[in-house]
Amino acid sequence: MALQYPLLFPYGETSYHEQIAYHNNTGRRQTNRAVEEQRLKWVRAHQNDLRIDLYNNICDTVTRGDTRASSIGKRIVLPSSHIDSPRYMIQNYQDDMALCREYDNPDLFITFTSNPRWPEIDGMLYYIEGQKAPDRPDIVARVFKQKLDELMRDIMKAHIFGKCQAGIYIIEFQKRGLPHVHMRIWLTHEYKCKSPSDIDELISAEIPSQIEDPAGYKVVTEYMLHGPCGGNNMDTPCIIDRKCSKHFPKPYYADTTIAEDGYANYRCRNNGIKVIKGKATLDNSFVVPYSRYLLLKYNAHINVEWCNRSRAIKYLFKYLNKGPDRATIVIQENLTRTGESSVETIIEMFSFDIHFSQPSVLKLSYHLPNHHTFTLHDSESIPTLLHREDTQWLSTIVIKEMMFNQWFELNKRDPNAQKLTYAKIPIHYVSNQTTKTWEPRKQWSCIGRIVITRP
To answer: pLDDT digit string (tens) for 64-73?
Structure first.
């Protein structure tokens, strides 16, 4: 359709920005505008009207972006930023380690996986004849985001595990297309697990009694049993060298203990409770640690682990920020559809956050006197910017880089600031971009991280 075009950045260069240049047409029909300003103005004016429409009887993974404005009537695709690049993941890792510096090791490691059989998804598919969850990545993405936001409210605001200091998560995507989240939670000192009995109050690793707790038995046996693997089922992905790489079945433990490496061995008793899955009979040794409250509320696979004393804390955060899987592929024609969906693409089109951090981390730059640095887009040139009449672009750069200079000024007038290092300043002060000064922080929370700079 007219004025519909993709913007491709295969080499990881700067993505969409406001000064994308038009092609320099040297023929008879010369281009009047130098950059894509008119289109950008229309997008700003109608960004609330952009939506993803539901198309009945269309079974493909490319969801149409439609607009409400009849006066324009053009469909557009807004490209997302390069969020899975190695640089993005490294910066997230450094931000996460800054939280560890401030709050010590996290307390809980939680994995939350989407469930394509959620009633909200089935309810939407009821009105779309002939389609299933893999055919509608837009519906799966929306419901998953709603569930994830509710889960974070339960943890960070409702304090189901106790009062929280901080929390982060990273959204990843399974090879079959379903999204899942890895998150780390920091609890305040009074709610930290100081003994194995405290861990038992938050985490379970046993099958509930079908008679005493039928609801718990149903969700645990449906979502939290590993496998079955091994024995007559050696083709499962977890089998490496004829052994389960996830170390199932687990040993039995009469009580929860903390191993020398800092990991918890959860209570897993041989109490005779079993469940049949296919041809295999599984017991407590195949249970993935969980929170009963979360399972009953969200009806999905939610693995909860205690990790406060782990010695491999850097590895755990590198695991969170490892980025997407990479593979060598071959493109062929006339291949049969596998039914897999592209939820990752839809989540990026909806501009859902892939990385969440609370509190936020402010990157603090520094420089030699009169050696300010700033970044230009690929399409911008220094001579052009220096001769621009407006100075808005320059003031933005100066405000960002002046935080370091204004820190010295803050120390001259505020004795309390003299007691803090540069990295501690954002906890107690906020940079006012209007007055170009550091002012006492009145709300929200933030921690600072000094960026890595070449010598």
So the answer is: 333 333 333 3
The one-letter amino acid at 414: D
Full-model pTM = 0.76
Q: Which residues pair with 94 in a beta bridge?
A: none
Tokens 């600072």 sit on residue: 448
Type of residue at 453: T
Q: Give the list of residues 6+ apart from residue 278 with CB closer than 8 angstroms, or none.
A: 228, 233
The beta strands (E) that lie in 156-282 are given as 164-173, 179-187, 239-240, 243-244, 257-258, 264-265, 275-277, 280-282
Of the candidates 65, 44, 45, 38, which has an alpha carbon nearest to the alpha carbon of residue 54? 65
Are the CB atoms for 288 and 102 separated by under 8 Å?
Answer: no
- How far apart CA 20 and CA 40 sit, in angstroms, is 10
- Of 84, 117, 68, the residue nearest 12 (C-alpha): 84
Number of alpha carbons in the 13 Å side-chain half-sphere of residue 20: 14
Query: In whole angstroms, what is the distance from residue 434 CA to residue 447 CA?
Result: 21
- Contact (CB, 8 A) for 116 and 140: yes
